[in-house]
Records
---
Amino acid sequence: MRAHRVRALLMGGQACVFYGAAEFSRDTDLAIVADSANLARLRRALDDLRAEVIAVPPCELKYLRRGHAIHFRCRHPAALRMRVDVMAKMRGVDAFAKLWKRRVTVELADGIRCDLLSLPDLVRAKKTQRDKDWPMIRRLVEAHYFQNIAKPNPAQIRFWLRELRTPELLLDLARRHAATCRRLIPARALLAHAALGKAGELERALIAEESAEREQDRSYWLPLRAELEKLRHAQ
């Protein structure tokens, strides 16, 4: 991707590894900017990987812009059978220009740099209907919490209050940063339970919050899945 100057951000399970919430993944998930120039660069990179589209939809801008994921399987010996999934639009996630500004760049052992979704954007992208994503969200935010709790800055405290899914940590954080917690209640109603130290109510509210996000994701994907079915039948 870097060799062909593709504007892409690593997300998914491999990005989670960089943030300390290890997840084994055979897929490489990328968020890209959906314009004709970047798509041409992406196609050249995928040609080098000898990658072929898996099933539907085809690799076209109109599908990326509507929110579909396009799936590829690599045939190059150095990436044999590696799957590459590409998206340009995700439910509840900002447009690529904002994601790019907030990106995190890491350098690998061989000197290659890798651009990742920022942690808050990665957490937002993982709020799906899939069972495996919710334990990963919890691990991602917990890992960040324990890495930074000794000397947190205000932005980190706000992030944890907005995204932590561990009742004990939320209760402790609400106790130690009561004013910030109260200010964020309009954005996350369950913080009212954390502010009052009500553990049982907080646990139930976290379950309800997850359930609501899952339902919103199912509703978001209904028309997209219907379109995929039409494409499959057409093939």
---
Amino acid sequence: MSPRVAVIVLNWNGQHLLGRCLGALQAQTCRDAEVVLVDNGSTDGSLAFVRQHFPQVRLIANSENLGFAAANNQAIRATDSEFVALLNNDTEPAPDWLAELLRAADSDERVGACASRMLFAHQPQTINSAGVALDRAAIAWDWRGGEGDDPAEREPEEVFGACAGAALYRRAMLDDIGLLDEDFFAYLEDVDLAWRAQWAGWRTLSVPTARVLHLHSATTREGSPFKNRLLGRNKVWLIAKNYPWPHLLCYLPAILFYDLGALPFVLLWRRDWGPLLGRLEGLAGLGKALRKRRALRPLRRLPARTVLARMAPLAAPWRIWQRYAHLYRDSGGQNGG
């Protein structure tokens, strides 16, 4: 008989992180679970470490880095549990993390995803993410990121989506709307999944009692050219696939204003061509993204105005920066030194 939940941990040269993460999973109060580690071609001895210290963990070893989306999909397809949980290797979940996520999911069969309360490992009184938020300029950010944590909060709240760094998904929802978009490789694939879930009428809850310590961007440095290129590219595809029509016509000037406004700063001051190259790559693949949009029409069970209403209103430019300020503050601690 299959366990009720499969916890999938993706790893790429993260041996130094695995002891803490897998040890915390071993200590979970929920026992009706299996742990699956997908290794994306590590060369640092990660596989040998897991085999020696965590022999109960199911291993999927890839010869190369398939990316976040494809590797997680690989593990999802290799399991048949009622729920799947995705967990970054740079996290340490509390002992009742999985049990709390399942408790929230059991509250309503239309809850397709549950978001964890992710706290900065070096500053656990500060929230890293409590879910995914998205505004009408198609800007995604960590909901409640940078706020102080209140351990007294107990009740789940409705959110736009779950951060795939520590999230629970109902397999019935994934069977309905599809898995992570593998063309994204990494970044914003969880926002794309959340947007499809919204269109299809699934709910997502943020669960404050499902707590996880997170060493933010331990694998890929915050603000790196590689990450910025993928973010720029994937945002183009994200909008092309999911933005409600005809509302896109109304909000397109704002989308362009916010999206292109930061490019001169990044190009001239930081000398980072990643965001520009990513956007050009996204435009080059626009045709494929639009074909995916047409293929997703049967999932659009809610009116476009309803989906738009679940997106946050436009914010002033200086408030956009404030959403991310906590990611760059004391970045040495957040990024593991």
